[in-house]
Fold:
Amino acid sequence: MKKFSLLTLSVLSLVLLFSVFRTFSVKSYQTKIEPVPEKNLPIEAAVSRLSAGIRFKTVSSLSDTDANSNEFLLLNEHIRKSYPSIESKLKKTKVSNFSFFYEWQGKNPNLKPILLCAHTDVVDVDPSTASLWTRKPFGGEIQDGFVWGRGAWDDKSSVFAILESIEILIKRGHVPERSIFIAIGQDEETIYGKLGAKAITEIFKKKNIRFEYVLDEGQVIAEGLIPGIEKPIALIGIAGKGYLSLGLEVDLKEGGHSSMPPQETAIGILSSGLSQMEKNPFPLSLGDVQKTTFQWLAPEMKFGSRWIMSNLWLFGPILKSRLSEKNSTRAQLHTTSAITKISGGFKDNVLPAKAEATVNFRILQGDSHRGVLDRTEKILNDERIRLISPDTIFEPSPISSVDSIGFETIRRSIQETIPDVIVAPALVSAYTDSLHYGAVADNAYRFFPVRVKPDDVKRFHGIDERISISNYEEMIRFYLRLILNSSN
Ligand SMILES: [Zn+2]
Structure:
């Protein structure tokens, strides 16, 4: 017994010693790059152009010709007038009714071009929360140091900041070494990007244009969102989860009178299937992207968190269980499934023959559409529930390199813009247009430099969306640096 305890004790101390050694031996991934000052940015005029852009109610739509189209036309006209140098010097290609891309020809045809992208459509304002906005959702008001309104973040700030930076550089006489493409889509928020990103990508494919990298919205600058690090953290999205809205249908082919019901109804069969799915979520794991994120963040943390993050071989299970406590962090650990629609029945005394539901999956790297179908079939284990795959499925994206020209350029441009920032690669759980554009690029990165504090997270697609004027200035400076740094 004594021997055993001695052995356990020595093994434990070895494990402890090794983990502490590892904690102090992990090297920092941060590089020392000083911010580059940028004077004479026309920020007031830039802010008023963004504010005017927010006032067009370009709510996302699957159609090119519905009642909303006038708002898109007016916004595009506003963009055309706001950036005369871009309009006169860059080649513009119109796609669908309201999407377009510019090509800024580079000097060196041997260098692959890069693609900056953004979207002009926005999600609508939820009527049940409209009265909770403290500013008009489509007012574009400039107050208290912020520009307020839908699109101030997602994603009109990107559209305008990218164009501001290019307009400035053209006026200064800059000509890039590498060609720069800017793609502006009209329907990112519909999820499928059919008229925008998808249609533009098809054109690039036909013309055999392949990009060194694409930069799209996605991850942000997190401030106080990651415990253990006080400095702002610029998370560069290196992978995006896949997207699948699966239909579930029970069709018994016959209804009947509710006074003589069968033992199981269409609604009952479907409900118990859905309940089985909720009881059997996809298993949680720390994937390659998450491990990379922790590897980059660990050396920047205080001892406790650093010890845990540097020793995933030992603390992985504890970390996993901590991360699984919050919906936002649990979503990073597995393929999620959410029941988003259900319908069946039309009258209180009639048995419906049919019941339908939609389950939305966000597929993590390592899983696939096929895998999701197989697993769902197994869990349902009921032939009466039919699975219907939609026409458009997005498999999870490949993981983009952290040792590429693109990653290096983005990282450098962030550090030249944001003082005292930490940079780390990360996963993006939400759909973005890059799931299309990624097909024509060697690497796809998902990052825009909006600063997000814990209280701000709910502003995405939520109430009181806004961007601070100083943050908007940083966005313009970031794209400016990015274009200047893209010359090699
Ligand atoms: Zn967006």
User: Anything to note?
Assistant: Residues 119, 154-155, 188, 217 surround zinc ion (CB under 6 Å). Residues 2-25 form the longest helix (24 residues). Residues 43-238+397-486 form a domain with the Aminopeptidase fold (CATH 3.40.630.10). The chain has two domains: 43-238+397-486, 241-394.
